[in-house]
Amino acid sequence: MDAAQAQVQLKDLLEEFRAIETTLTSEQKSEFLKRLTAIMHELNESIEATLKN
Amino acid sequence: MEVIPQTENKVESLEIELERVQKAFGEEARRLEANLQAMEGEEDPSVLSKLSDAFYETQARVMTLVEDWAVPAGVGVAGIAAAYPALKFFLTGEYGGDVFEMAFDKYMERPIGTAAEAINASEGNAGKGAWSMGASLKNLALGGPVMAASMALRKGAQVVQSKLGK
């Protein structure tokens, strides 16, 4: 896959995300982001603990 | 005194809450970027192996989250069908090349809340064709963070795997 093809493919994928988002309320978006943030927080904690030891 | 309808108040508070959560995500994203840089200096195979496990476990959790979230949100099977391949695409690294790396760099160098600004700025750089896709990213409350998280996870896994010689 070259850069131009990849760019087109990525744009299509983002359009799919956009279509899904239009079906969600702010409350649902917040809830999803909270969960995603919590997962990222745990990963950060894990990385920092591992690097310290 | 102006009386604000309760429904308007609720909508406004939900919008404020969403902004707060987006900011929190941005903070974790920047923290992860710093951690990825710290990992670059790590050479101990046992530590790298633990980091590798953490990244792959997190990737699985993010994918599960997308599945869990799509159904209760009423997105349904069609929504999962749309979101899942896109996420898998990023997580598994099927989307290779410098375009991916540029996207990662642009996302992580600024708070996620101002991702649209970064996109606007980079659109002015004709040499970075990847960001002609900027119009698609603007106003994405979820797609942006999911992609930023996915890209960070992939980058982390790549850093560890290359050090482990895999």
Secondary-structure map:
The complex is a heterodimer of chains A (53) and B (166).
Chain A: H1 3-21, H2 26-52
Chain B: H1 6-40, H2 45-70, H3 76-91, H4 98-108, H5 115-123, H6 134-137, H7 143-164
Helix pairs in contact in B: 1-7, 2-3, 2-7, 4-7
Q: What would a concise description of this structure say?
A:
The complex is a heterodimer of chains A (53) and B (166). Chain A has 53 residues and is mostly helical. Chain A has two helices and no strands.
List key phrases describing it.
heterodimer, A: mainly alpha, 87% helix, B: 166 residues, mainly alpha, elongated
Structure description:
The complex is a heterodimer of chains A (53) and B (166). With 53 residues, chain A is mostly helical. Chain A has a domain at 25-53. Helix content of chain A is 87%, strand content 0%. By secondary structure, chain B is mainly alpha-helical. Chain B has one domain (6-164). Chain B is built from seven helices and no strands. In chain B, helix 1 (6-40) runs parallel beside helix 7 (143-164) and helix 2 (45-70) packs antiparallel against helix 3 (76-91). Mean pLDDT of chain B is 60; it is low at 74-82 and 95-140. The interface between A and B is large, with 45 and 62 residues.
Please give the share of residues in helix of chain B. over 70%
Return the string of H and E elements of chain A.
HH
User: Shape of chain B, please?
Assistant: elongated
In total, the number of domains of chain B comes to 1
Summarize the main sheet of chain A: none
Number of strands of chain A: 0
Number of DSSP helices of chain B?
7
Instruction: Please work out how many helical segments of chain A DSSP would assign.
Output: 2
Q: Which structural class fits the helix and strand makeup of chain B?
A: mainly alpha
Radius of gyration of chain A: 17 Å
What is the subunit arrangement here?
heterodimer
